[in-house]
User: What shape does this take?
Amino acid sequence: MQVANAHRKPQHLHVAGDSVAAEDLKVFARAHHLLGGMGVPFLMVSLFFDHLKRPMGWLKRHGAGVTVSSLVLGTLGILLLMDRLAWLTTVAQRL
Assistant: This one.
């Protein structure tokens, strides 16, 4: 009967133009979860806080430069996401 097959999950997902098996994505998601995702750097800082006082002091002294760099990288990331990096290149060439 056709109705029974209508609720099947897709066997493949298309990511960045490539066909990837759903099972492969599940393995990647589980590994990411087990490794703590983005929390690993924060966990490492908390575990080695005494050893990182000097580098953290450097960040505190140069915070304005780090903030500006972060804003530039964030802007470039958004332009890449929106596929507008060519626009930025055109503007830069006119300068």
